[in-house]
Amino acid sequence: MSASAINNVQEVNFDGLVGPTHNYSGLAVGNVASMSHGGLVSNPKEGALQGLLKMKSLMDAGYAQGVLPPQQRPDIGALRDLGFSGSNSEVLARAAKEAPQLLRAVCSASSMWTANAGTITPSIDALDSRVHFTPANLQSSFHRYLEPQTTGHVLQAIFRDEQHFAHHPVLPATPAFSDEGAANHTRLCGEYGEPGVHLFVYGRQAFGGERAPQRYPARQTLEASQAVARQHGLTEAQTVFAQQHPDAIDAGVFHNDVIAVGNGPVLLYHEMAFLDEEGTLDELRAKMSTPLIPVRVPLEAVSMEDAVASYLFNSQLLTNPDGTMTLVVPGECQEREAVWSTIQNHLLAGNNPISEVIVKDVKQSMRNGGGPACLRLRVVLTDAERAALTGRVLLTDALYDDLTAWVNRYYRDWLAPDDLADPLLAEESLTALDELTQLLKIGSVYPFQLG
């Protein structure tokens, strides 16, 4: 690829809109924040506006920013599949009485964390020069297992042009192929338009293997990561498969993006990120065409408790035109003295490209266990690929204004778990989502629209 072509390649962060049923039900086993906030009252309107404000501020700073819609919730169809019958209000009422845990699951707004939506391979790394997508099966938890079908519809609606985009089927929804998407995948490279190396991080091997966590489940298998790599046509020279440290999973690091973040040639990671730290770094160095820049945070600087509570490593690492990088961290990083000191004295003052830290308030998401990096799906696109996108999904001032007005029209500012049985909430949500697909111009993607 020529120098001019390389310069015309951008990474677009597609953030998930926080859905109208955003609530704190404590559904995610192993996600300490989600479990500890279960049962509290949420503010869906504030959550959606916080997410939009983060997107807008990054767009204003010159970063390419996209938007992905939330899922249809409550998923009354899922309740019907599980034996509940009658009108929608009757289904909701019966579920609330007989199986409240199922009602909470089908109302989850977890699709806001689009890092779990799927795994993406940019066209520069693909044999057919197309961008490749595989939606994650998210089979490790019921409330997320409900997402992949609609996620596939959304991705195919936006990335529709077959000349530029290739879509693969979801992996079999079995424990052997447990796949949590880009939350366990990092592409490392020089410039975005240069060939990259794909770091796939897994928590366990389905068929034998190394150590496994004892307290919390490992959500990504080696077999799933290998299958996605095969789907995308990635070769051994383009891939590194590393096991996440099981002690980190047991400390609440349910995805690799809670303990490490990479961008360009930089890998910012905690000492406890990988079971074989040196082996992982050595293989990356051997396969990358540009020198790896590892930025290691030792355990003595940031404890596992502080890492999980602050989500320091679930930050966005963004490249600036001058080659420096900006780290976008959640406000919780300022609340932990050890974390904030590490940011100032180790990251910003260290010999690495990180030159700026931006603090963002995403508390509504953080209380359910998702920081800035959880909220975005990274897609590297050329000029031609961006031009081939369908719909109105790249953020502009006008789209931001429209989405903000849409949120203010439809979202509640108070939602307790007991409110999830309210049939009016279901009606409000469907009305809002129907209008959203028109605002985004992506056509029919939801079950209620497709019939």
SSE topology:
Layout: H1 3-7, E1 10-16, H2 32-36, H3 44-60, E2 65-68, H4 76-81, H5 88-98, H6 100-106, E3 118-121, E4 131-135, H7 142-145, H8 148-158, E5 165-167, E6 185-188, E7 197-202, H9 222-231, E8 239-243, H10 246-250, E9 260-263, E10 266-270, H11 277-287, E11 293-297, H12 304-310, E12 316-319, E13 325-330, H13 332-335, H14 337-347, E14 354-360, H15 363-366, E15 376-381, H16 383-387, H17 397-410, H18 423-440, H19 447-450
Strand count, sense and barrel status of the largest sheet are:
3 strands, mixed
CATH architecture designation: 5-stranded Propeller
Kindly provide the name of the CATH class: Alpha Beta
What's the total number of strands?
15
Count of discrete alpha- or pi-helical segments spanning 4 or more residues:
19
Number of domains: 1
Helix share, percent? 25-40%
Distance between the termini: 45 Å
Question: What is the CATH topology classification name?
Answer: L-arginine/glycine Amidinotransferase, Chain A
**Mass-distribution shape:** globular
